[in-house]
Every structure is written in C-alpha cells, then in structure tokens.
Amino acid sequence: MVDDLGREVVLTAEPLRVVSVVPSHTETVCALGACDKLVGVDDFSNFPEQVTTLPTLGGGLSGTDIEAIVGLEPDLVLASEYGELATTLEQLGLTVYAGSPQTFDEALEEFEVIGQLVNREAEAEALRTEVVADIDAISATVAAYDAPQVYYEIDSTPYSVGPNSFVGVLIQRAGGENIVPAALGDFPQLEPEFIVVADPDVIVLGNGPSVSPEVVAARPGWSAISAVLGGEVYALTQEQVDIINRPGPRMADAVRILATLLHADSL
Amino acid sequence: MSLVAQNLRFAYGDVPVVDGLSLTLSPGEIVGVVGPNGAGKSTLVRLLAGGLEPSSGVVTLDDKNISSLTRFHLARRLAVVPQGGTLPGGFRVHEIVTMGRTPHVGLFSRETTNDMDVVTRALHRTDTWRLRDRRADALSGGEQQRVVLARALAQDPDYLLLDEPTNHLDLRYQVDVLRFVRREAARGVGALVVLHDLNLAARACHRLVVLAKGREVAHGTPHEVLRAERLRDVYHTDVHVFAEPDTDLPVVLPKL
Amino acid sequence: MSQVTSQRWLLPGRVRWTPLLVSFVVLAAVVLLATGVGSVGVAPAEVVQVLWFGATGQLGEAPNSVAATIVWRIRLPRVLLAALVGGSLALSGAAFQGLFRNPLADPYLLGVASGAGFGAALTLIFAPTVPLLAMLGVPLVSFVFGLLSVVVVVLLARQGRTIPMVSLILAGVVLGSSFSAATSFVMLLDRELAANVLAWLLGSFGFASWANIAAILPFVLVAGVATLAASRALNVLQLGDEAALHLGLPVETVKFALIGVATLATAAAVSVSGIIGFVGLMVPHAVRLAFGPDHRTLVPLSALWGALFMVLADLLARTIIAPAEIPVGVITALVGGPFFLYLLRRERRGFG
Questions:
Q1: Chains B and A touch (3+ CB pairs under 8 A)
Q2: Does C239 reach chain B within 8 Å, measured CB to CB?
Q3: What is the pTM of this model?
Q4: From the list B51, B70, B98, which residue is nearest C242 (CB)?
Q5: Complex prediction ipTM
Q6: What is the pLDDT of residues A81-124, one digit of tens each?
C-alpha cells in the first residue's frame, strides 16, 4: 500500500502494537474493533473513552514525543503526511503510515486503508456501509425541508469553509446551503461585509468556546442578519467541534449534529 | 556687563574634568582657550552655555546666575558654535539659519519680517547669502561652518562661544572664521574661542587661557602666555617660540 | 520653512497649504469612493445620502435600507478606522524619525507592536479559561501591553534625566524580541486558537465599528495636535541635541513628550487593527522625499498620506479576491515594499 507521501508501507504480519498520532485514525482503529492494538496516542485523541488511559505522546506545545514513540516499540505508527514526524520515525526503523483524509470521499476510503493496515478489512467495509447508509438516511429526511443558507465559522478572523471541503460536504449532506462560493477554495478568509450581505439563515460557530452568539450579534451590522434575528446562531461545544472536524467513523454523528441545528424548527 | 565663571567644577563620576576655573568674558573681547586634548575645553564651553550643570561654582550673565534664566532667554544672549558635526539632510541654508531665531520666535509662533531681516543680515555677514537656496548638507565643510556661524548670528547674541571652529578647515576657511570673530568682536560681541592652533590663537585673541587637566595653567596676552618652557610642560613637547617681525606676536614651532 | 526669497532679503515663511489642501480633498474623495465599493456597490451620491441620514440619526428614513445598513454600520466605520489608524501610524512614524534623526525609525521601534501583540495573543489564547481576559477584550489588553513595553524600554534606557537614544533603541529591540518570543510561546499552547493570533498579528479592519473609532479618536487627536505643535521643535532637533539645546530647546522634555504621545497613538491604533507594518516607516519617508524635511509640512502631510494609503490598502485587501479577504498588513508590505524601493532609487538620483 502507498501512503500520502508516496511511500510503500510494508507489513509482514498483522500489527499488534499500534501508535496513532491522528485523532481520526485513533477513532477508526477503535471503530474497527482493534482498539486493544493501540499502545499510545497523541494528546488530542480523546475518543473513544478507552484510549484516554493510553500513554499520550504529545502533539501540542512540546511537539510529538519521538523518544516515547520509539520506547513503545510499535510495529505500526499511524501519522499524518504533515511535518517531519513520519520520515524521522521511518529513519529510526519504524513502520509508518503517513496520510490523512482531506475530503468527504477520502474519509470514507480511509476506513479501508486503516482496515488493511490493522487487518480488519471486513469490519472496514461494514463500517463504510454503515456510515454511508446513516448519512444517506439523514440526507433523505432533511430533503423534505427547505435548505437554509449556512455560514460556518472556523475562527473569528473570520475563516470559513468552502462547499468542497470536508465540513462543507457535511453541511450539504445535512441539508444546508453554504454561503461560501466554491471558487474561494476550502478555507477562505471572508470579508465580513460579504457575510452580512449573504444574510445566512443559520450561523454555526466552530470556534470552540472562544466566540459566543452574543459576540457575533455585537459585530457591526450583524444584528440585521436573519440568523441573528431568528436566534439561529449556534456555538458548538468542543466535543461537537471534534466530531465535525474529524474525518473518521463519527462522520454520521457530525451530519446529525449539523442537521439538528440547520433544521431546528422542523426536526 | 559680562559672562563670568566663578570657581567652576565638573566631574564625570569621580574624574574631575573642570577643576576650579574662573573666567570673565567682556563685550568686544576675544578670549582664546588652548590646551592639550582632554584639558576640559569643550566641557568649559558647555558649562558656560548652560548645557551642563557645574558640580560647584556658578556662571553669571550680567550678575545673574544662568541657571535662573530660561533656556530661551539664555539663547537670546549667548550663541554656541558646537564642535564638528554635519548639517541635517534636506534643509536649505536659509532654513537652517532661520532656526537661529528660535529663542526669539519661540516654538509656537512664526517669524516676523524683523526676524527675517536679522537672518538676512546674518547671511550677508557670513558670506552665505549666495548659498541661501542650496541644500546645506551638500555644501563643503568650510561653507557648512559659515552656515553654522550665520545661525549663531541669527540668534543676535551678545556672547559667542566657539568650540574649535577651525577644525578640519583649510587655511583659507580657518582665517575666514577668525576674521569673522574679529569683526563680530569689533561690533561689541564677546567671543570665547577654543583653538588648537596656537599661532592662529595668538593672532585672533586678545587674551589666552591655557588649560591642562581641567585647571588654568596660564592666563594673559599671547605674549605673556605662549612661552616655550610652559608649552613644553603643558604639551610634553619641545617648541621654539619666535617673535613675528612685523607684529612682534609669538610664533610657536614644534621641534620634530 | 519656505521663506520666499527675493533678490535682497528674506521674507517670513508660509505654511504650504496647497499640498495639505489637495491631499485632504483627495483623501475625502477616496473615503467616499471606498465607502461605495464592496459586496454591494453604492453610488457616491447614495453614499453621501446615507452619510446624511446616518449623521442626522435618521438611518431608518434612507430609501435603500440594506445599502444604508452596510454603508453606515459596516463600511464607513471600516474606512474611517483605516484612515485613523493609517494617519496615526504615519504621524507617529514622522515623530519617531524626527526624534531619532533616523529615516529608518518607525512607530514600532520601541516595542509597542510586540508588546501589544503579546497582549492580544494572551487574550485570544486564554480568554476561554480566564474570564477577566475575556471581559477586558483584545483591544484593551493589547493597548495596555503596548504602553507597558515602551514604559519598560524607557525605564531601562534612562540614565538620570536623559535617555541616550542608542540605549533606547537597543532596549526597544531587546524587549521587542522577548515579547515576540513570549507571543510565539503562548501561541503554541493552543494551536487552534493560534490561528486567531496570527490573523490579528497580520492586521485587519474586518470588524471595525464606531465604538473602535470612538475608542482611539481621543488618542489620535491628542497625538496629532501635540506633534503638530512640536513640529518646529522637531526641525530644530534635526541640528543635533547639543545645537538644539544651545538654541534654547528643552530637548529632553520634547523627546519624552513626543515619545509619550506617539506611543499612545500607536498603541491605540494597533489595539483596534493589529500590527500593520510599513505605513509608519514608508509614508513619512515618502513625504520627506517629495516635500523636504520641514516638519511643519511633514507632520500633517504624513498623517493625511498615511490615512490615504491605509484606506486604499484596505480597499485592495477586501476587493482583490472578494468576497474573500487578504490581511491588510500583507497588502501594505506587498505594495509598500516596491514603492519604497522606487522612492529610494529616486532619492539616490538626488531630490531637487
């Protein structure tokens, strides 16, 4: 198998000691019933509950703790393609898969990739089928309602998400229409005035706890936006942000959360 | 009517730079201050001009302690030509010279026609009128020094303090500067000039003060002061002293 | 000091009103234009109409209420804030370049920006966990830290009653680096919120409001009046500290006062807009090249040109790839850099 760095990942036997430093990979491994293979995870991997007792290997302020990873003697490390981590670990003789899904479709395919790596291919196919069916069901339900115009805020700069980004597709599957045109790319910084003019029906704040609906309502000119007038500005909890941002097995939950917010009146 | 220093002392930390100097500068008189490097000549000028506070002793201007005068008041009576330095970029000569009117005009009003008349005269008297629209920083060293003299004149002062005004100038401009001082003295201005060239000092000044290590070593007419033995002690250098045939003024020649 | 010279004598100088008036008219026109351009185009006539309704407090009466809201509540504050910030940065830049007799000085020289940046980073990162920081808000905290850093720099550099300029610059550079390092450290504590810090550091007028304008206007006005009043003193200061002192200028007082007001204005500007580079350095320099070093022209023209430049930069920032936006600090550096080089080349050929 070839990972996102174009490297061939060769496993001679089913890995028994797996380290994951990407939260969505951690979730996928566990969803495939291989949670007991995990011997260590990064600081941000907090789901499922089971992984919170594992040794944490950094990823925040101090960077990833390479020595600790090596010390765990893993036979497989699941990393992302970003940074120097994968190459460094490989040079130290570890087997490393470096990759992370960027789009909705890649996220579904990633189940099979991880499934192959941890020898849970049948479970991976089942998981994919289940997630797809789950999401299709939600989409079918909300199709009955008018699609609201949605503004999803990543942070208060303000950065948003384009319709082709992972979260952008989640919004679409949840029956919302993103106000951001596809031409702006996946993570555009928007001119605030454009948002006022676009007049979204729903505003979803994925900033974590730093921005509240009151803060949004107080922005100059924003009090006239339909979402603000209609009380449809929702600040996601940190847990909800995690679910929505992670291209992993909880994608259907992500769509469900968004669908509930976008069709609060109807559902 | 005079600028008087009484028993001035000034020290940087524990090191005395000026150590008990007294001096009187009267209208129309030129006093030369000579002495080796580090004798305290520039410090003396700063003390006299109120730019430094003496550790002890006082400077009085017409019997008033200068520390009781406002800065502008002092600058209307007394102008300083500081040592060296180039003029700032971009300004025209007439702009630089007009800045000499600052103590009269203040910081918040504009020059009157009268102020500009003074500036005009200052330019003419320093032969810089023809340079008035040139950029000051583009002039030669000698021309720049004239502009600084003009700025001092624009202050319309009763006393002029010049710190090594002939430094880095060629012979013509050195003579120029000292002739200028003579003319101003003839008009009643009291001038104190710090000089390195003893022969020029002997010809330009009425009185000379010899400083060494912050103290006065000698004081009097050039004749009285410029003696071979004394100069050897002060400068640690052997010199010949002759009399110039026509004027009988001393000529100092170092022995190599 | 543009004395009119005749053949035989000099006449008193006159303030050069023409460039000031022309610049002011151009600025007013550009403000009107910029206020009309955006997601919804508004014709200049309609802008003026909205301004009238807005200024007389009857915004509801305006014929097109969407346009009225956008112009009055979003765009006009944004444009005016850009003008105020640009004006005060350039004004402070002119004051600093004059004080330090160094054309490379800028209003951030003594650490205002890095101090304010640290304050902003602290607030953005810790506001979720420290209610006090959330309550004070980014502008206030960054303003306080901006002032604080300059106070510390001045105290570090002070020797008795005088501040040697070299010590001042050194202390400014050192404290600036320390604050920048501290900012980076704080940013590492939360990588997701760090994006907000980075965005703030790059500068933006995205959420400009009338409240921002009201908050900084007093500081900008005080700094403007004080620096204008000190323009003659700044001229004399160009002769060197010693010569200025002997002309009766209270040199240290002038320096303290100008550093004080310029710092207040800069910290105020930074607190509402982030750290926007190049304006404070480049604009006074450009004015000096065009109109010479007389601060009586240099100071007010710098303020006007700084305002003009910033309004145009922000206009570009929000229109080039609309409705997406580019941080305005990126524009000022991108446009400012080459323009500055062009000016330097022109200068080398000698200005008239």
A1: no
A2: yes
A3: 0.88
A4: B51
A5: 0.91
A6: 888 888 889 989 999 999 999 999 999 999 999 999 999 999 99
